[in-house]
Amino acid sequence: MKPCFTTSVAPSLRFSARVLSTAHAPRRWTSKKNVRMFPKAMAPANGAISTTSRRYEGVSWSAVEALCNDIFQKAKNQNFDVILAVSRGGLVPAVLLCEAFELRNILSATVIFYADNGEQFFGMTEPRFLAFPSADALEGRRVLVVDDVWDSGRTAQAVRSRVLRAKPKDVKVAVLHYKPDRNIFPGEEPDFFSAITTNWVVYPWERPSPKTPQVGLDSADSSVKQGSADTTSTSVA
């Protein structure tokens, strides 16, 4: 098992020795300079936070890499057989974690709940599955469910419950960001998470969408700062 990533997903996703050798506290990733207030885009759906009060937090590619590495370090002794990526937010983290765990078996579950602008999709109150692996692919396996964020927890809990119906040997949930203040499941939380936040997180793979608030894209954030692991890179390879 590798101690760190050697992924070749994209040139901008490669780890540097400096990033991998730096210990990161969970709250380090909430950078004030990358948190902005955006005006209202549309009326929020039931249960959604008004966009007039939502705070957005931009995350760079290098931060994503370090967050994934943190999850790997916490979960590397779990002996997972398969990683189940929650599409779309969990796809990139799942690929990075597959590289770290040296796993070839990666599956995906397509779930809709939130739109690109952060509103609940057409006012949905529960996640909806568009695609899910067969029970045979999960039965008797140690499954790691990977998503980008645990907000209310509805998506992660829905996926976990459906995996359990397939009778796996074990199932764990890993997310990059956890929002305990938004969690609606008392006594439940992700098994592995790298950072705690109260903001709406904008990941680098979301930026091509015209509906995504462009956080951290000003001139001060447009270049990688040498010698710093907490950098903001706005280029997408």
From TrEMBL:
Alphabetized GO MF terms: glycosyltransferase activity
Region (Disordered): 211-237
Domain of life: Eukaryota
Domain Phosphoribosyltransferase as annotated: residue spans: 63-200
Signal peptide: none
Keywords, comma-separated and alphabetical: Glycosyltransferase, Transferase
Biased composition (Polar residues): 220-237
PANTHER family reported in the protein's UniProt record: HYPOXANTHINE PHOSPHORIBOSYLTRANSFERASE, PHOSPHORIBOSYLTRANSFERASE
Protein name per UniProt: Xanthine phosphoribosyltransferase
Organism for this UniProt entry: Gracilariopsis chorda
